[in-house]
Structures are given as C-alpha cells and as structure tokens.
Protein 1
Amino acid sequence: MAPTKEMNEVVVSKCYECGSTMEGKLENYRYTECGLSSVVLKNVLVFRCKECGVSQAQICDAAALHRVLACMILMKETRLSGLELRFLRKVAGYSATDFAVVSGTSKSVMSRWEHRPALAKQTDRLVRLICAHKLLSDILCEAGMPDADRDRLLEQARESLTNMEETLKRIQAKKKGRRPVQYEIDPVMLSRYGTTDHASVAVLQ
Ligand SMILES: [Zn+2]
C-alpha cells in the first residue's frame, strides 16, 4: 500500500486499566489471550499504556481470527498439545462436557487431555476430525452469515480440509531439531476471511 498521510498519525485509546492514554503502533504481538503462547499477530495495531504498562492489540474480528488460527492448528504436522485441543474445542463451540460426549470419553479424561504437552496418536486424530467437522458444519449452517463471508470461509475450509487426509498421515510426535510450531497471522491473511475489513489497520502501514 502506498504511504499515506495517516502513516505518521499517532493513534490513541483510553487505558482499560488506569484510564490514562494509550498510544498505538503497528508491531508484532504475541496473542496469549487466546490461551496459546505460540501465536504471533504480525503488524497489528498494539496499544500500550505508559502509566501502568498494560498492552492490548486491536482485533477487529476475533471470531474470524480464531477460525483462521483453528484451520492452521488443524493442519499442524506434529501432535496437538492439550492447550491446542482446548482452543480448537472452544472455537468449535463445544463445552468440555459436550466434547467428552461427542468423543466418547469422560470429562475427567478430557481434562487430562487438555493438560498434556502432546496428545496420544489416536486422540490427536479424533480431536482434529471432530473439530474440523464442527467448524465446517458451522460455516455451512450458520444463519445470517453474508454470502461473501461464507464463500471466503468455505475457501479457507477447503484449503485445510482437502489436505486433512495428508496431514493425518504425516503427523509426527515432534519435529526433530526444530523449534515448536509458531503460528503467525498477518492482517492480509485475516482480511481474506474476516467479516469486517481491516482498512483501519491497513491504512496505517
Ligand atoms: Zn494504564
């Protein structure tokens, strides 16, 4: 995008903790609010408070972001962690009780799964298939979703799900000699699937 006058404008917001002024600028942001330590939002508007030190990224459409992230996690080539299971379960809209019923287990076993660093082979596959199915059926059946949004989400689901079989064949215990998987999401990627456009962020680049 061509540089614009807005490039150098300081964006401010009111601190949700102490009420003083927060200044926003574009940076990479580790999005731990989603419950995972491995997600980095690239080039998002991050507001920081100089008084109390809190920071917050501007997320225009958390539901879209979480769906993009869920699709990335479904394609992961190493075993899911318990925290990734919990994230997928929540994006798919399952309570722990519902997920236990659907996966044919108990809530206490579910809780153990969610505290494991890596799921067992078959549990991993079961979790992915249940969550992929639920995400897809939500996209197909969600009432009131504009057609354009549904088309974009279906495109995303098509990319992830057509490769699901290959992913299932390839899942390894862990990647040898490589750092743990990190998920990076940039605004362009998000705007392809979001239900709101990210012009307010894009114009600042
Ligand atoms: Zn503050």
Protein 2
Amino acid sequence: MMRIWENNPELEVIHLTMRFGGLTAIGDLSFNIARKQITALIGPNGAGKTTVFNCITGFYKPTEGMLKLTHEDGKTFLLERMDDFMVNRVAHVARTFQNIRLFAGMTVVENLMVAQHNALMNASGFTIGALFGSKGYKRADAEAIENSKYWLDKVGLMNRADDPAGDLSYGAQRRLEIARAMCTKPRLLCLDEPAAGLNPRESDELNKLLLSIRDDHGVAIILIEHDMSVVMGISDHIVVLDYGRKIADGTPDEIKSDPAVIRAYLGVEDEDAPVEILKEAAAMHRAELREAGNTKTKPTKPVLTAKKPIAKKAVRK
Ligand SMILES: Nc1ncnc2c1ncn2[C@@H]1O[C@H](COP(=O)(O)OP(=O)(O)O)[C@@H](O)[C@H]1O
Ligand SMILES: [Mg+2]
C-alpha cells in the first residue's frame, strides 16, 4: 500500500513534546496525517493520545515542537500558536471529546445550531441587522438549518431533532457529537474514542459514517480508538504511542504484526495472534470504562502524576 501520508500531508506533527511538571506526557513525537484519509492513534491508557489532541486543537500549548496544518489550497497554519477557538474557526479543525460534551438541556437540533453560531454572527455583522432580517443573515441562517438537517439525517437522528440531547442513548450522543463537529465544516476531524461504549451494531454504523466523512466529504480524520474492529476496519494509517513516544507507524497490516506494538499492549510477544491480543487489550479497556462508569479512564499501567499541572487549561481534559 502506498504511504500517502509521507507526501503532502494535511497535518505534520513535528518533534512535539508536552511536559506537565516532571512528567513528559509526549516526548519528541513526529508523524503525519494524510489528507482525506483515516489515521488511528492507538496505545495503552496514559500513552499520551488525548494530550496529542489537546495540542492539535489548541487546548494545550506544547512545550516544544510544531503542528503544521496545510489545506489542499496551500494555506498553512501553525496550530501550536493558535487558541482553540481559532483552530476551529480559522484552521478548520474540529474535535469530539473522550467524555461526551453536549449541551444536555438543549435539543438535538439546538446543539447543531449553536455549533454554527460563529458563522451566523459573522453574517450578522455583529449588529442588530440580524434581528431585522438582513439578507446576508437570512441566507446564513437558512444554510445553517440545511447543514443541521443534512447531518441529522446522516447520523440517523432526524426523528430525535427536538428531544433534549441528554435524553439520547450513549451511542446516539456520540453520533450527535460527530454531527456537531461536522457542522463547523472541518478539514481535519479529531475523534477521541468515538466507539467507546457502543454496541457492535452501533460501532458498525460508526465505521460507515466515518468512511463516508472521508470519502464523500474529503475530510482527514484522526481517530483515537481502542476498539480494534474499528481501528483495523477503517484506518488507512496507524500511529502507535507508548509512554508518550512513537513505537510504530504504518499501515494496519504492518501494525498488526509489529512486535513492539504487541509488547506495549500486553507486555508479551505472541507472533501467532497479534490481532487477538490487540482485541483483548481493547476488551480490557472497555471493561475498565464500564467500571469507571464511562466518566473517566483509568490507566492500566502505573503512571506518574505531575505535582503541578502547567497546562494552559489543565481542567479541560
Ligand atoms: N493537564 C494535565 N496535567 C498533568 N498531567 C496530565 C494532564 N493531562 C494529561 N496528563 C498526563 O499525561 C499522560 C497522558 O495522558 P493522556 O494523554 O490522557 O493519555 P491517553 O489519552 O493516551 O490515555 C498521563 O500520565 C496523564 O496523567
Ligand atoms: Mg485519552
């Protein structure tokens, strides 16, 4: 298989380091994300995956390194220099969270409309014009409604449009979060454990949705995921982290049989059944998630904790 990510990538992560006090959560990490492909970022709990997302999306300022985003039209952005709000609005990077964050009291469609608030405010010229129905505002408003409808339909939530988001099942909330991210028209979509807590049918639907986002919308996806049926089923490229370092980077076939990956997951080497081992590790992770009531993931390995978090927004993990 061609290693498309090596040439002309959407995102280059270049010598990224993130330290929290004495803890190096990410150490000198470099990898590329190809345009219009699905890249999976995998590794044991505490490996630094979510921290990578927090750096890409402007939640954390990396200690060192560069995050160079290049759109197809040649525009480039150095994400490490931008605030989270600008990363989304100007660089067109959107994300979902490991712990779902929706406005639970708002309806499903309201959640999607709020996501498009920036576009609507721009169209209003930040004046009262919007209230009196200026043409530009009306057009933007109609577009936002169309966009919401499109994504509601796409994620199968049209019949739940007027229900409070908090009433949806866990799987439906995960889909709504993806729809909300897509409403901001990203070129790069970052999904933090989108299949966590889904049943097999839902995780199958998720695969189809992500493939369609890639193929029909040309969006580059970076996916943190423990569910190996999702990772191996849809990824074009896999990057493996362990203790904040990259231990493997390649196609799914290359990763499946990589001894370093298998060691990282279970501390053993079994060349005969690598995928089984990865699956087992994923099942263990899911069990842990259930135990933790899906609110928090617990590290499977003993992990050092920093005495004093120095992250820009340490509480927003
Ligand atoms: N804001 C923070 N302050 C201190 N330590 C943090 C912070 N965020 C993450 N860490 C630490 O960084 C390491 C990597 O965490 P994380 O990126 O959440 O891992 P993963 O998503 O791979 O499970 C962990 O040891 C975690 O405790
Ligand atoms: Mg995480």
